[in-house]
Amino acid sequence: MYLYARYMSYSQIILNKGKETSPLRFHPWIFSGAIAKKDADLKEGDIVEVFSSQKQYLGTGYYANGSIAIRLISFTQATIDENFWFEKINKAYSYRKQLNILNPVTNVCRLFFGEGDGASGLILDYYNGHVVFQSHSWGIYLQKENIVSAIKKVLGSELKSIYDKSAETLPKQFSEQAQNGFLFGSEAEVIVKENSHVFKIDFIGGQKTGFFVDQRENRQLLSSYCKDKNVLNTFSYTGGFSVYACAAGAKLVHSVDVSKSAIELCNKNIALNNFSNHEGYAIDTFDFLKDKKDVYDVIVLDPPAFAKSRDSKHNAVIGYKRLNAMALKLIKPGGVLFTFSCSGVVDKYLFYNTITAAAIEARRNVKVLHYLSQPADHPVIPYFPEGEYLKGMVLWVE
Ligand code: SAH
User: Fold this and answer.
1) Is 237 close to ligand 1, i.e. is its CB under 6 Å away?
2) What spacing in Å lies between the alpha carbon of 398 and ligand 1's midpoint?
3) Are residues 106 and 244 in the same domain?
């Protein structure tokens, strides 16, 4: 007699022979070319179970009409319901608590980081009890209700609001079906603490989810190089690095961002922390750098992703080289350069080589003080190296 399993049954996908090796190694993406058989009426976002050509179960995920056809969110058979999401989000939250990422001096972190926490397409940022939900795929968006219930259960009375900010991150054809807005609560005035420094978060009007949570440890490291120095923080956004530099006793700190509203918020954050030795400039970094030779001892370059896809990788490398060569030419002797790239398609080795090329072009002798990456609340799992997107170098410039 056929025994019903305790999980729901989903549409089944059969892979081509040999294509099971990737999911067996826990890589969560299945490309469309790997699929041998699927139901004809499969819709974007449908939950599916994936099997090898030998009918071995490989994983459960959601379907998309694209080159990445399935994103696996479980490697054991499961029903994708509120309880499934509760377990996933609770695990992510407990991990961060165990690592003491949320602590008396820091109440902001990434609560859920896509594949790094086991669900491609789902980003949750935690801002002192407020959660910003950002879905990067229609499949995750369809799970919104379950995810919201799960967040409520995980955070309990600690939860103040949940804000959906998926309209900009969903694939274009779905973005019109999504509207940003509160899914729970309504408080938009949010102040967070990061290593004791306070920041105002504008998750409604700001870029991404409102704050670049991934630079916390790198900002802390910057502190140790700033005492009595002239510091330039380019692509400053809301002034994360600038606040740390002021707090560390910099002589002066200049923040540069092309966005006027970013500089306004940066100025507010400087004031919130009671610093005054700071100036914000709403201008393009490349223009700002043109005539600033021998002014700065410490420079931070944290541009937006110059490459969003493989097609733009070459131009991105040219951009990183030009930017870094400019900064290296004008930094004072004995200066320190913090330089970053968050382009996923530019891997760390290509980035290191690009910075080397920039140093050669600038004719400056440099030493590598640190290689930097993303913090533990943006976990990289070895089965999914694509998740390592943030890389940085700290250079001593003779
Ligand atoms: N370092 C920041 C995050 C940087 S995000 C932090 O720690 O929070 C990238 C920023 O670069 C955005 O605020 C964007 O407005 C800005 N930007 C993009 N192109 C720019 C340009 N050409 N010149 C100056 N700023 C730019």
Assistant:
1) yes
2) 27
3) no
Segment 225-249, tens digit of pLDDT: 999 999 999 999 999 999 999 999 9
Model confidence at 8: pLDDT above 80: no
Do residues 26 and 101 both lie within one domain? no
- Order of strands, edge to edge, in the sheet holding 108-113? 108-113, 122-127, 130-135, 161-164, 181-184
Question: Is the pTM for the entire model greater than 0.90?
Answer: yes
203 lines ligand 1 (CB under 6 A): no
Please write the tens of the pLDDT for every residue from 57-86.
999 999 999 999 999 999 999 999 999 999
Ligand 1 close to Cβ of residue 218 (< 6 A)? no
Atom of ligand 1 nearest to the CA of 259: 15
Whether the pLDDT of residue 44 is over 70: the answer is yes
Q: Is the CB of 302 under 6 A from ligand 1?
A: yes
In-domain check, residue 22: yes
Does 380 lie in the same domain as 260?
yes
Predicted confidence band at 182 (pLDDT cuts at 50, 70, 90)? very high
> Could you give the number of structural domains in the chain?
3
Residue 262 alpha carbon to ligand 1 centre in Å: 8
Q: CATH number of the domain at 36, please.
A: 2.30.130.10
